[in-house]
Each structure stands twice: as structure tokens, then as C-alpha cells.
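Please, structure for the following, as C-alpha cells.
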Amino acid sequence: MMPEAPLPLAALARAGRDPETPCVFTLPTGGLLRILRFVRVLPGRRYVGIGEWEGRRVFAKLFTGPRAGRDFGRETTGIRLLTEHGIETPRLLAAHHAGQEGGWLLLELLEDAVNLDERWRALEEKRDATARATQRKILADALRLIGRLHAQGLAQDDLHPGNLLYRQDTLYLVDGGGILSCALRGRQCFLENLALFFAQFPPHWDHAGMDLLTAYEVEFPHSVDRARLNAAIARQRTRRIAHFLRKTTRDCSQFQVGRQGFLGASGFCALRRDAAGILMPLLANPDAWIARGKPCKLGASASVLRLTIDGQALILKRYNLKNAGHRLRRALRESRAAHAWREGNRLMALGIPTARPLAFLERRKLGLRGTSFLVTEFVRGDSLLTRLPADWPAHAPLPQAELTALVELFTDLTRLSIRHGDLKGSNLIWQEEEESGQDEGDKKGGRWVLIDLDATRQYQSRSRFCRAHVRDRQRLLANWPPQNPLRHWLETHLPRLVSGQEMED
């Protein structure tokens, strides 16, 4: 915690993860920098925030610790390369590295700018034809900028939508620390970099991305091998998800992990840092909250309850241990809550709609796992069989929005070799699209949200996934009797694997 009094830059090394703002630093070259708020913190290494310097608002990057010189050098070199090659990036206003004191650089603050990730997610929520068209446009804009970057022999090794900023109609590339030269590495470097960008988006956008590659090829005139790019996207997506899932059980900017001192010596917990405020009372004594929650399911193996804390609706699931034998079998295995936590985060990272996982908790004794708990957001909406009932009239019009969305969801799962494991009607919830911003010509749609991920798994082997795919497909269709018109339509349109490898649409 730091007061608003001038401090040396080196004081950041002791500021921890949540430095108090506003705070003022005396810069080694003279002058003061007042930080209004931090937007990203890597404790003891890098502090990024919005501040004031010499009467103007700036975007500040402050480097501390033993890596400060290296991080400072990479950042300034990258910004210089982008500027020299005419790639839009915020203007560097001042920079200095002072050895033990650390380093700092001040950039032009792009007021009212929004990053591509935020803009994309807002459009995803609308889920209408107008939003899809806008998404295609911004994807083409990004591909043109990446094409210009590659044409100059440069790449960005952290090429994600958050590092692309829209300001009015101009797209800027930020984070000079990730800029590297690919001039001597050949076209494979550019292909992998392009694949890294595509891997950030849900898999159902891969096909649209292939269609929009002409925007990239206009700026970087060479033909992209679509088959090689698709293979590279799959590799990059796998690496990205594996890296992200490792973060979900360690302390970092997005997740908070507790062992001794958080839950005592008898527990392990991981939770989203942005939800810690409302979850702490719940995680301190989940059994007490179960007693006051609204039951959704009270079974021998699991108890599921709905809670409301500070106005937010939550689902709390306790995985019960039925007897001594069951306790012994589960003691050395991954807990069911930890499994569901990981798979929920996996689906979210891949763009598959699911209830947002907020926390999981394991009780432990002498290192052995006991009862576990999972907390997710509550998903409002109709279940599958409420929306698409088993007694659908034979001559009634088919609900195309719901059926098409169901096929799209199942197709994404199949492309990614993911089985849900229990596709009964109560585990798919229909979320209607938002009303606002919808054109009169757009039909109202929505999406299916998967819940109950206890049996969900992503397969590395496509042949092994084939058997799981068949079971998932059969379980989904079993929600309707054989003569039901909805089942007949889905039997025709749901994808199926051919010889365990190719997908038949």
C-alpha cells in the first residue's frame, strides 16, 4: 500500500499486487509521475497504468526487479520497430532506464479507445446477423494490420485481440515487448503468428477467417496455404489452452489460490480474483450456505443449490462422499470439483457457452482429498426440453433458431474433440439474444449453454473421441422419441464422424 506522496520508482518492487492509487513517483530524470489507476500488475516486475505527467494524461509502463533492463529494452526496441515501419502504435513520449531504480516509459494515451477483445465480446452477446457482419469487418481490419506487420518482416509473439486497439476507425497495435523480427526465420514464422491470432477466437470462426484471408494477402502478397494454416491454428489453440489452464490453479492476475492461511491447513481453493469479494464468506463456510440455499438437486453423490449473494445469482455444488469406500477411492484422485472447474474454464477459453466457473474448494486431511465444492454463475433460461419439448406437434413449424444453434454447438464440440458426457435436456439452457441494437430485419436468436461438466473431457486421440462422440450424439437425440419431428431434423443435420476422422455435416 502506498500513500500519495512522492516515492522513488524502486518503491514499486515492494508494492505487491494491489498498490494503492493514486500514487506519485519521482522519476530518476526529474519530474513527477502520478498514477491514477493500474490496469495490469505483474508483482515485483511490471506495473502498467494510466497517469499524469507534465500536464497530460499518459499510459505508463514501469519496470522493476532483476528483469527490468531486459523488459525495458524489449519494449522500447519493439516500439521503435513499429514506428519505423509505419505500423500504427501509440507514440512514445519518454523512456529511461536507471539501473537499480528500474525503468519507465510513457506512451500517448489513446482516449476513448476500445480493444478488439472488448468489442468482439460485446458483439458476441448480441448474436444477430448485424453483429456477425460487424465481427467479420473487424476481423478483416485486424488481418490487414497483421499483413502489413508481416510484410515488414515483423511479428507479435503475443498477438491477441487485447493488443489491438480501435480508436475511431483506426486500429493500433500495442505491446512493443512482443515485437520480433521474422526476416531470417522464413514464412513459417508468419504462418504460426497468423495461426496464433486465429486461435484466440471460437473455432466456428475458423471458416470465416479463411474466407477473410484475402485482406491479409492484399497487404502481404503471398498465398497462404489454408491446410497448413488450419493445422497451425489447432496447434496454437492447444498450446494456448494448456497454458491458460495451468494458470487456473496458481496465483496470478486472473486467479487467486489459497492454501494455508486462506482456508487453514485443511483446504485448497482457486477462485477468480474479480469475484473474491462476494465469494470469501461463501468459501469460508460453504456448508452453512448450503443450508440456506434453494435446492436444485439433492442427491447422494452431489447437492446442488441456488444462492444469491450481493444480488448475484450463483450455483453451489457440493460433491458428497457416500461412504468410507467412496471416500477412500476419491482421496488420491482429482476431485470432481477440480475437474469441473478445469473443464468449465476450458470451454470458456474455447468460446463454448457454459456457466462461468467462479471457484472450487477441496477439503483435505493429511494431503488426502475429501468433500469438494464448485461455485458457478447461475444461467437463466429454458432447458432444452422446455424449449424443444418431446411432444412437439408433427405439423408445427420447426424452431430454426434453436435447432441451428444446437447443431452449431455440437459441431464446435466435435471439431474440438470434446465430449460433454451427459447431454440430457436439463444440461442445456437456452439464452435469448439481447433486444438492444437489433435491426428490424434480424430474427431473434440465442445460444445453448452447457452446464454440469462432471463428465466433460477433451480427447487428444481422435479415434478415442469417435466412440465418445457417438455416445454424446445418441444421448442428445434420446431427449425426443423416435417419431418426434425435432429428432428427425437433428438426426439429419447433426454432424457425425466418418471413420473416426472426418466430420460429415
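The longest strand covers residues 32-42. The first helix runs from residue 68 to 84.
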